[in-house]
Specification:
Rossmann fold; 11 helices; 5-stranded mixed beta barrel; OB fold (Dihydrolipoamide Acetyltransferase, E2P); about 20% strand
Amino acid sequence: MNSAKIFSVAELNASIRGLLETQFPFVSVAGEISNLRQPLSGHLYFTLKDEQAQLKAVLFKIQQRYLSDSPADGKFVVCRGRISVYEPRGEYQLIVDTIDFHGVGTLQLEFEKLKKKLAAEGLFDQERKKGLPPFPEHITLITSPSGAAVHDFLRIARQRFPQVPISIYPVAVQGRQAGGEIVDALATINAHVRATVIVLCRGGGSLEDLWAFNEERVARAIATSGLPVVSAVGHEIDFTIADLVADLRAPTPSAAAQMLLPDRHVLRARIDQLCARLLRRMGSLLERLEDRTATSAHRLASMQHCLDRMLLQLDHRTTDLERAAKAVLAANRHLLERAEQRLHLTNPLTRLQMQEQRLTDLHRRFLAAGRSTMDSAQQALQRAAGLLEAVSPLATLARGYSIVRTPPPEANVVTDSQQVEVGGRLYIILHRGTLECLIEKAGRSQLFEKKEECGGE
């Protein structure tokens, strides 16, 4: 035992490499491609697998020009090459020279079969997909809390809209138990968690790594979810059954955060733009109201002038009536004097009584005519005064209306609840006096909203 040679790790790996390259100078291996990747070097790294084992393989860039087809996950191939050892990591692998393509592997066939079945049932139809809320109130991630995918999602979410709460429902995203845990998570979130959207979140991987998201039970759980589901599984080139059934497919977890959450900076700029437009509209409306007020004031002044003219006419008519009444009385008095003279001369008692009765009747008729003329003139005056009062702003205030303004120095007229903020102050002008008020609540009147529904303006 003590005389046995002691190898360093590098020496042992080199010896094993020599033995393998000597014993297997050229081999042909049949299997299914999985976990295919191509870094910046251009070389293709993948795994050959069957139902019992896996073998790492590499196809250098210079050999790819001789291929009859493009390698892809799920394809069944025969690779020809030599066995070697990558000494720095002690991993043995197949250095591929050529690839013969023999069709699709077992997992890929299962994928296509399930895809065709669910498509026939309508689970991929756009009509059955639920819409996403423009501003999610709560997002729940179904993912592995230790994976890079969840950190990518949270990083983008914090950048775009950090006010939205995000909860994580931890599950296995790879392996035999992953599918069942995902199904249970979907059921639990729909039943108990106060979420507005669910995100299935996982990083990239091989076909078998992502297989939990290709299981039929997972697809049906997504389809029956009452909450909208976003599938953010794998990289952009990865496609799963969950992507097809989900209400939205995001190419990456980071992209899912971008698609779900608005950019707060863009949103703030849009709000500022809308506020500026609102202020311009309000200014234009106030100008029109000022023009209408000026027009009303002009009309009021015109009506005042008309009323003054009518009052003057009434004075003239009153004077005329008084003059006419005095003339009638004078005439009657003159007649009476003449009658007295005739009576004194003739002394007929009967004629005197008749003349006296006639004089009384004439006097009553003249007084009635005067009162009628005075009543007509007074009614005309009252109608003119009522018309003047109807258009007076003070009369409007007296009926219970008021003028609401913002505090000085602006003192803008308030016509919409959206002009003010809770906590601000208002000045209310009444028929008698003013009020200074603190705003505790602002909102639209349901009374006016109902009128708008009935077509009123």
